[in-house]
């Protein structure tokens, strides 16, 4: 068995391996999704390693390039994402070999740290390879239809998120310095269009007053209710303030349109989301577990990332896709 860098001609075999190893119950796998995720990413093409045996690809490991920004400075990072081992080759240490080899290669390319949101089954393996727990992403939640939510009557959205033209002119006015205390994803019109408008998995919606804020959302169906997930709440221009009464009015309209029972937003959002009327937001440590591993950043700077204000993840940053 040999480890080698993936080639463009490997994509169909990689997708077939992902389907064989992981199935498609959570997220459908396709060459289109792989291309969008690992080739079209505006932060750069993903470094990908494969394990090959007898001319067949039996293992794959991919990291997505990610960029963070703070006060105009850019920080190169990686997000550990797709990995799969053929069922006949599992338990032979291939996952660890692929991951450590790819980490070694990426450390030579000035990436400063890597992050991910591993599930409980894979978390112990990452911790053994040097990842550290940052903790669960804090959430702010508002239950807007408690009876429907707890009785299961709000099980599915009333309708799919409507098709919309995406506001490139508004994207251009999103502030690039929203997290003066810590790092946040580097925002640009290219990134926002790729992440939300061109996403082949989910349909996202947006609303804005065109002057003070842009809200990007997704309506996610759960078994007993539907969730109005605020993926991004971004002020426009150079001010952190936004038109709160106008936003509240539009939020209430959108939530009612889609029949959602729950509203969610990241508790690390740098834009405060206030309770209003019957919409009472409360904090909940229910988000995904975030882990980090240093790849070359100064130790003091790495330790800073574990502080509550050291990183500002949105829900859109950490969604599985």
Automatic annotation (TrEMBL):
Lineage top rank: taxon: Bacteria
A Pfam entry, by short name: Acetyltransf_9
Gene Ontology molecular function terms on file: acyltransferase activity, transferring groups other than amino-acyl groups
Residue ranges occupied by any N-acetyltransferase domain in the UniProt entry: 1-154
InterPro entries, sorted: Acyl_CoA_acyltransferase, GNAT_dom
Keywords linked to the UniProt accession: Transferase
Protein name from the UniProt record: Acetyltransferase, N-acetylglutamate synthase
